[in-house]
Amino acid sequence: MIVGERKTFEQIWDSIKDLKSVLILGCGTCVAVCQAGGEKEVGLLASELRMKSQLAGKDIKIGEATIERQCDREFFDSIKDKAREYDAILSMACGAGVQYTAEVLEPIRAIPALNTRFIGVTEQEGNWAERCRACGNCVLADYGGICPMTICAKSLVNGPCGGSKNGKCEAGQDKDCAWVLIYNRLKKQNRLGDLHKVLAVKDYSKQTHPGRYINEVYLKPKMEEKSA
Amino acid sequence: MENAQFEPVVVAFCCHYCAYSAADLAGSMRLEYSPNVRIVRILCTGKVDTLHLLKAFEDGADAVYVAGCEEGSCHFQEGNLRAKMKVIQGKKLLQEIGLEPERLAMYNISASNSVLFAKAADEMTEIARKLGPNPLKKARGEVK
Question: Which residue among A30, A78, A89, A110 has its CA within the 20 to 30 Å range from the CA of A151?
Answer without folding.
Answer: A30
